[in-house]
Specification:
By secondary structure, this protein is α/β, with parallel strands linked by helices. Helix content is 46%, strand content 15%. The structure holds nicotinamide-adenine-dinucleotide and 2'deoxy-thymidine-5'-diphospho-alpha-D-glucose.
């Protein structure tokens, strides 16, 4: 079996669902169920003996030791993290605890388990660390996209904590020989995306007639990738990636934020027309994110060259599926907008929109 951490979050849940749709290899899924974790995303696996869910924390060494010994996984796929840049600005402590301390604890538990395996199982074992393009910092308009050898220049508490975790993973390979793989991916979007992030937030706010907050001038550029393509890339790297290597994953799809917001409004105008007028009337420019990275772009040629992976979705097909998914799942959306969610919206947006 494989051992997934953070498999009740956005990408982790998509990964587990896709994995079990494509293979009968069981999944041990460890997730702390923070505000971002949602068992409802895994509802379709209820009663499926191939999915073993455990609520627990990656900083809990005794729990990790017990799970590894009991389930004897052939690989760890590590998604669990605090993932939202704005939250990292308001409260960086959780990011250090989970992303740095948690990754360290998981590496140590995995190393102890892996060291005791017979030589052939040690050689076949993999620790796959799921990371982000944000570790590379920000690009100027004419700069070439990030390659795997780009210098690390993280700018937010989130990206600094992910950079630290990448360095730990690298060191556990070089020092202890742990067979690691690291992937650094661009911005994902798709089903089960928590509506604190730009794309689901804009869809949900537009449908509710609330303001669509665009930070700063809206000209920051992100490289958007449909989540199913990210999951497919991770499966390829896990199966055939070279041990100790990092692979950048991206959609070759750079877009300024304002264009993303306008595209969503146009899709909603088509799929759920509002008699009062276009959803774009709700767009509001608000105070910028402190330290806001201007541009990310991924050079994904290495993974294409070595493993033959490239994205299957274009942005046009992926964003249409995503908007339709939100329209088709009002109950999932309603339930994740709990009291805690409303507190976050107040914390992040009240001061911003008054600025
Ligand atoms: P998410 O915030 O939606 O999910 C994170 C999951 O981790 C949640 O289910 C949460 O409950 C769990 N978790 C948090 N702290 C934990 C802890 N201490 N112990 C156990 N579980 C814990 O995040 P996501 O967007 O799905 O991102 C998953 C991974 O992919 C992260 O490592 C993130 O850095 C990386 N990544 C995300 C993107 C993106 O666009 N979302 C892009 C590139 C890389
Ligand atoms: O690049 C990969 C990263 O993408 C991942 O590592 C992170 O986990 C993930 O959250 C995402 O980070 P971003 O900060 O790019 O995503 P977010 O959706 O928060 O913001 C996308 C862009 O939209 C960013 O430039 C900030 C802007 N934005 C965001 C929000 C929430 C707005 O203009 N308004 C908003 O209300």
């Amino acid at each position: 079996m494989i051992f997934v951490t953070g498999g009740a979050g956005f990408i982790g849940a998509n990964f587990v669902l896709d994995w079990l749709a494509a293979s009968d290899e069981p999944v041990l899924n460890l997730d702390a169920l923070t505000y971002a974790g949602n068992r409802e995303s895994l509802h379709s696996l209820q009663g499926d003996a191939r999915h073993h869910f455990v609520q627990g924390d990656i900083t809990d060494r005794a729990l990790l030791d017990r799970l590894l010994t009991q389930h004897q996984p052939r690989a760890v796929v590590h998604f669990a993290a605090e993932s939202h840049v704005d939250r990292s600005i308001h409260g960086p402590g959780d990011f250090i605890r989970t992303n740095v301390q948690g990754t360290f604890t998981l590496l140590e538990a995995t190393r102890a388990f892996w060291s005791a395996l017979p030589a052939n199982e040690q050689a076949a074992f993999r620790f796959h660390h799921v990371s982000t393009d944000e570790v590379y910092g920000s690009l100027g308009p004419a700069d070439a996209p990030f390659t795997e050898t780009h210098v690390y220049e993280p700018n937010s508490p989130y990206s600094a904590s992910k950079a630290a975790s990448d360095h730990l993973v690298r060191a556990w390979h070089h020092t202890y020989g742990l067979p690691v793989l690291t992937t650094n991916c661009s911005n994902n979007y798709g089903p089960f995306h928590f509506p604190e992030k730009l794309i689901p937030l804009v869809i949900v706010n537009a449908l509710a007639g609330r303001p669509l907050p665009v930070y700063g001038d809206g000209q920051q550029v992100r490289d958007w990738l449909y989540v199913g393509d990210h999951c497919a890339a991770i499966r390829e790297v896990l199966a055939r990636g070279r041990v100790g290597e990092t692979y950048n994953i991206g959609g070759w799809n750079e877009k300024p934020n304002i264009e993303i917001v306008q595209t969503i409004c146009a899709l909603l105008d088509e799929l759920r027309p509002d008699t009062a007028g276009t959803y774009a009337r709700h767009i509001r420019y608000v105070a910028d994110r402190p330290g806001h990275d201007r541009r990310y772009a991924i050079d994904a040629r290495k993974i294409e060259r070595e493993l033959g992976w490239k994205p299957a979705e274009t942005f046009a097909t992926g964003i249409r599926k995503t908007v339709q998914w939100v329209l088709d799942h009002p109950e999932w959306i309603a339930r994740v907008q709990s009291g805690d969610y409303r507190n976050w919206v107040d914390t992040n947006y009240t001061a911003r929109s008054n600025a």
